[in-house]
Design brief:
Number of domains: 1
Order of helices and strands: HHHHHEHEEHHE
Bound molecules: heme C
Structural class: alpha+beta
Strand order of the largest sheet: 1-4-3-2
Mean pLDDT: 80
Oligomer: single chain
Radius of gyration: 18 Å
Largest sheet: 4 strands, antiparallel
Number of helices: 8
Strand content: 5-15%
Number of strands: 4
């Protein structure tokens, strides 16, 4: 029904080509995932939380603000690093093993890459969603309400230990539909691989532009 047919015809034969294209478009996507666009621009909770942090740091004069800026910059840096390594890994796996094989690769490499980037950048980082594929991708406690709210806004929160928690929305791109699109439109081998690896998968049924999930980052106070 609806657009499934068209989607299927476009995506099936060309999935790895599309991923080549996505890699080329990595910069544009990275900007999108960084999402300083319409979603966060008019975010009231954004300014609220930032006001909270700023008044916390008020005793330290200008210092508070620059600490916050440093933390935000490091969060963005870590997010870009994780995004690029995930996309690189995904593109290679799609080209070499096809989409079903790429699910195998993603299963082990996605969590491992998050660990690696976190260690390299000195932060904690991960991906999460309201509808999880990997049940281990639960949001950290501070992020749960924001994720549940489905607002899809970027938020930053000062945590009790002085760390900054940053949550950034991830929207679906057309090539992501190969593995996250309407269930009945997925290639049969993708459906099988998902059923094997993720019997409780909640992460299908998306179309391009949908809020798929979030990157979360915890940056310690420098
Ligand atoms: C080859 C199939 C495949 C493609 C294509 C794919 N994903 Fe996924 N996605 C997965 C798998 C497998 C997982 C679970 C991996 C893990 O443990 O993090 C996952 C997990 C995620 C998660 C973490 C939350 C969760 O549900 O566990 C997000 C966010 C996500 N994908 C977004 C995307 C976006 C955005 C794209 C397009 C750029 C994309 N995915 C393309 C297979 C895919």
């Amino acid at each position: 029904m609806r657009m499934n047919y068209g989607m299927r015809l476009r995506i099936r034969p060309a999935s790895s080509l599309l991923f080549g294209a996505i890699l080329t478009a990595g910069v544009a996507m990275s900007a999108m995932v960084g999402c300083s666009g319409k979603d966060s621009a008019d975010s009231p909770s954004n300014s609220e939380t930032e006001a909270g942090s700023a008044s916390d740091g008020a005793g330290e004069e200008g210092d508070g603000a620059s600490v916050l800026e440093q933390q935000k910059a490091l969060a963005a840096d870590a997010r870009t690093a994780l995004f690029q390594s995930l996309l690189g890994e995904l593109t290679t796996a799609m080209q070499e093993d096809g989409p079903a094989g790429a699910i195998d690769v993603c299963k082990t490499s996605a969590p491992a890459l998050a660990q690696k980037v976190g260690t390299e950048k000195g932060v904690r980082i991960g991906r999460t969603s309201l509808q999880l594929r990997n049940a281990a991708n639960q949001p950290p406690d501070w992020a749960r309400d924001f994720v549940d709210s489905r607002k899809g806004e970027e938020v930053s929160v000062e945590l009790e230990n002085g760390a900054l928690g940053v949550l950034t929305p991830i929207r679906l791109m057309p090539p992501c539909e190969v593995c996250h699109g309407a269930k009945e439109s997925l290639m049969p081998e993708v459906q099988t691989a998902l059923a094997d690896h993720y019997p409780n998968d909640e992460a299908t049924g998306y179309v391009a532009g949908d809020l798929r999930g979030y990157f979360w980052v915890e940056v310690p106070r420098p």
